[in-house]
């Protein structure tokens, strides 16, 4: 298996990431920068959560609940921070654009930047949670946990990374729209979906839980993508050229 | 909002989940990797090459092979690693040795102890070296000949109970699952091949430098020591034994009864003789020889003779041999009875002197010596065969514990360990050897009731210590007897001859890793016991001494050695006999003092 398996899991986890990056992000250099900046911000948030929680591990299994809840809360706080940071940057970008007689940023730009930020977030999650676990898959052996005889650990990990990547990417789009139009239900949707997906991963701990856990997380992802798609579709034509 | 309410409900349910989870958790990626792989340490069967072809085991190609593990008896319809109990190994090889589905074999100790229960060698070991025509005489009735077979898959011997348990568990898991994944797979990553293809014989592989020659150091010591600058010439009585064993699994060759019991008896005899005063006044000189490489083609004895004929030992006053006494397997003699084997062509008078000395010694040590059965075709497999080949009239005998065939059930077997020898047999053999040698050296001028003769006492605790050191696992070669003379590299002594990788001109004591522990110990022991006692304080040393008559004895990691007058040397007396390499090796000096 070896290399084939390793690359397979890698592509499962990050294949769509590469596609989205290649098609939507790469043509615009500013978006590439956004992806990098966003990834760094989110990696920082994950690191802080990890550093704090490392002190309490290994521990009893109910600790997982606390870890997940507090980490999701921390990340959502970072999301708000990110939004305010973005507003500041946008202001400076508009000033610059005026000076250079270029058009100001519009709603489409904001959407694209939101997507790129989401990609950054998703990449950070995939790298942090997925890649290190997938690394041993490049060797000749595989591994099945006692609670999941149906799929190798690496496949579960790769699928989870994929689900969360897509979740984060489109959550950011929804979040930017929510903050722009101050829409309460949209603003609450993102943290709840994030927390829900995170807690649903605990289903994998049950015997044979992975057969339910992985599809359930994908369900959250699908809901997020659908909701995000609906928002963009409804808002796209009317507000396309409105200033940000 | 309704969606949010439902989401909270879900949260409450999820709160219960961690308590429902079972199973141990993995804390880190390295821990994950350690659960994916387990290493099964075992002793390999390796690939040997001789003049005619290949023996032993190897991976078929140059890469590692791997296959799911099954037990012997499970259906072999796809490539598999087979776990075979030792007692069924021969049967397995006979039935499935050519089966393409056998990727590798793991041999486990099985339900009975000991393991193989058989000797790995042929029924006439090394028959091609016999100096007589009857090569179908069965010296080794327990021999399976396994070590002379050529297998095209790797075989490993699992001896530790944990490894055996693990292997059995993995195999039964595979069988329970049937052909469903995931399977437990064994990977054999010890590739045993010549480094170039198309070199299946010794000549081709040594010529292409794609293999290593077997070789080692034999030890020679004269008693009393000679003055190297003016050696006096006296008739030489050779007392010899061999130190190496060979089994199917290269690294498990304890060789307790065959041949190490001979070495132990000889060393104990030397120790007893070292207390005899005025040995210098005796008419003959004793030369002690401990050969290596004998189990693999009599490499030591053949090289010794070749170098003797070239005059390599003239410095030691050794140009020809008068009489030979070889100490063979003497560790499990029944009722203290030993048998003297001689070749019919041996010179009558000189040989009879040896036999008479043995009879005399037997009567004084409460043991029995008998001449071997006349129906035997000649001498049993022994280093003496080399000397008889060279000169059929050589006056030589071999003392063994058996008459017409080996009594040792585990000749060249992994089970020839310390439980296969007993102290009384060894002690009596040592007494026999010591007293016979004194009689021979004095050329029968010593009466058997003289006080000197009676004073020859074998140190029983020395014999016991040697058995524990050579065949024990802890402390093994780090026992106090060995530690007083040298520092061993390994705890457990393995009596495989080894490959020769050193520069022949370099003194072996300067590179302890080149020369194996047992040989180094024999060298130090012989040097110590045969050395002249000195009145003044001995000069300290680490490797060499200034005086050419002296050698540095007993240098260990924690203490310096002493310079003693002794003619003990380690000689490169081994090396696969190929003309190409023979000329290389023989151009350099054969022996090193130190």
Automatic annotation (TrEMBL), chain A:
InterPro entries the UniProt entry points to: Aph-1
- Any one GO BP annotation for this protein: protein processing
Q: Which domain of life is it from?
A: Eukaryota
Q: Where are the transmembrane segments?
A: 6-23, 30-56, 62-82, 113-134, 154-176, 188-206, 212-233
Subcellular localization, as worded in the UniProt entry: Membrane
Q: Which UniProt keywords apply?
A: Membrane, Notch signaling pathway, Transmembrane, Transmembrane helix
Per the record's keyword annotation, is Transmembrane included, yes or no?
Answer: yes
Major localisation: membrane
Q: Name one GO cellular component term.
A: membrane
State the annotated membrane topology for this chain.
Answer: Multi-pass membrane protein
Please give one Pfam family short name. Aph-1
Homology family: Belongs to the APH-1 family.
Name of the protein:
Gamma-secretase subunit Aph-1
TrEMBL record, chain B:
Q: Which organism is it from?
A: Physcomitrium patens (Spreading-leaved earth moss)
Kindly provide the name given to this protein in its UniProt entry: Nicastrin
Membrane topology (UniProt): Single-pass type I membrane protein
- Superkingdom of origin organism: Eukaryota
**What's a BP term from Gene Ontology annotated to this protein?**
Notch signaling pathway
The family annotation for this protein states:
Belongs to the nicastrin family.
Q: List the GO cellular component terms.
A: plasma membrane
Where does the Nicastrin small lobe domain start and stop, copy by copy? 44-194
**UniProt keyword terms in alphabetical order:** Glycoprotein, Membrane, Notch signaling pathway, Signal, Transmembrane, Transmembrane helix
Signal peptide per UniProt = 1-23
